[in-house]
Amino acid sequence: MKEKKFFISSSIPYVNAEPHLGHAQEFIEADIIARYRRLMDDTVFFLSGTDDNAQKNVQAAESAGIPVADYVNKHAKEFIDLEKRLNISNDYFIQTSVDPRHRDGAQKLWRACKPEDIYKKSYKGMYCLGCEEFKTEADLVNGECPEHPGKKLEEVEEENYFFKLSNYQSKLKNLVESDELQIIPQTRKNEVLSFINSGLEDFSISRSVARTKGWGIPVPDDETQTMYVWFDALSNYITALGYSDDGADYEKFWKESNERVHVIGKGISRFHTIYWPAMLLSTGVRLPSKVFVHGYITVGGQKMSKTIGNVIDPNVVIDEYGADAFRYYMARHISPFDDGDFTMEKFKEVYNANLANGLGNLSARIMKMAQDNLDEPVKVDNYGYTFQDGYIDESLSEYKINMAMEYIWSKIGDLDREITEKRPFSLLKESPETAKEIIVNLVLNLYRVGCMLQPFLPETADLIINATRINKKPENLFPRKD
Ligand SMILES: [Zn+2]
């Protein structure tokens, strides 16, 4: 098979608050795909990072009473630490206020836009600081931003640069309709198409330096203007690869890659499927090939919010249950496409049922029988490293991460049933050869489960695979929680 070059990114979160469940979900989803593609022998570049240049970071730093740079660095570190704790296998982490290639690259991208696509005009509108976006009447529900209810919109009047999005309406429509720019799932694709069909308005791509207080990337050749944070943020996907000086990674993973995938939340779909592709069309830079849009996580059926006080820190869950248990929940019990719900009660329930009493117990039972009755480790095939499972392949190529997990758990269920039905332990005295055969087969299938789990629960997968290699019962994979 010819080697494929595969680029995947998570979105870059604002650093005006601590990482929450939704960030963790996105990192895990992107990580599962990245790990899977590496197992498929693709050459992968997995990018993650933080969006430091937003105005709301400036505001948050001001109210915290510390310099903006210190503020964003402190919070960026929380994201870096969370990714480490979750075993996220990103190849690079871009901090947009720190990486000099980002500033150069964003300015290069601005200059590369066709001159007729950028113009200056005076504008008055309602700005949602939460979204970092001007809102039209059609966007609002009861006069409020639906993403940020209860937060006042700011009336802003100033002279800004605008991007002529209307120039790209029919091109964008064709790209999305034909799946040349594929939007997953279909429901999000439909939303984007109906938004395009409703008519695209030009959007502002700069702010006055007075309003941004000088934080952000200066517009080339105009010291009165700072780049609009979205123009700056979206460019991270190529600046991190070295777009500014045509670096080797940019050549390999963008210009010549087979796939370029963005993993994002539904709230920022418009930016990634309309604004970003239009900017790239203007500059002649290649487009992403796929945008995978996930839903939001509610807690006990409610939107997470500081006011309600239901925000769950992923670190607290990892402290008690470990990274793989958390990855398990996100991969299997949160829909990759629709909104999903999280509560500690539900988490504990499925943890005990499917990890402690499920996978953990099964691995211990099989390997205990093997350790006690087999003279040497079972010779395994090369199943996991060529990863020839059609169902998992199909599910993950459609980003149906939860379907792949259901399938693996059906295999785990099969193994449980096999033990119950064939009762190898009761055959050991009468027909030891038959009992051993059954045990060997159980170990082989457990090994296969371990291989299949590699992209999803990497640590557990390694422990299971290793246990079959050394013929030893793994200790305490998932201790029961009372
Ligand atoms: Zn908003």
Model description:
The chain is of the alpha/beta class and about 475 residues long. The chain has 2 domains: about 5-295, Rossmann fold, CATH 3.40.50; about 345-470, Isoleucyl-tRNA Synthetase, Domain 1, CATH 1.10.730. Helices cover about 50% and strands about 15% of the residues. It is built from 20 helices and 15 strands. It has helices spanning about 20-40, 55-65, 70-85, 100-110, 170-175, 185-195, 210, 230-235, 235-240, 250-255, 270-285, 315-320, 325-335, 345-375, 385, 390-395, 400-420, 425, 430-455, 460-470; strands spanning about 5-10, 45-50, 90-95, 120-130, 135, 155-165, 180-185, 205, 205-210, 225, 260-265, 290-295, 295-300, 300-305, 340. It has a 6-stranded parallel beta sheet, sandwiched between helices. Strands 5-4-6-8 form a 4-stranded antiparallel beta sheet, with no helix packed on it. Helix 14 (about 345-375) crosses helix 17. It binds zinc ion. Zinc ion binds next to loops.
Give a quick set of tags describing it:
482 residues, alpha/beta, Rossmann fold, Isoleucyl-tRNA Synthetase, Domain 1, 2 domains, elongated, binds zinc ion
How many H/I helical runs?
Answer: 20
Q: Which topology of the largest domain does CATH recognise?
A: Rossmann fold
Bound ions, cofactors and other small molecules, one mention each = zinc ion
State the shape: elongated
Total strands: the figure is: 15
Named at the architecture level, the CATH assignment of the largest domain is 3-Layer(aba) Sandwich
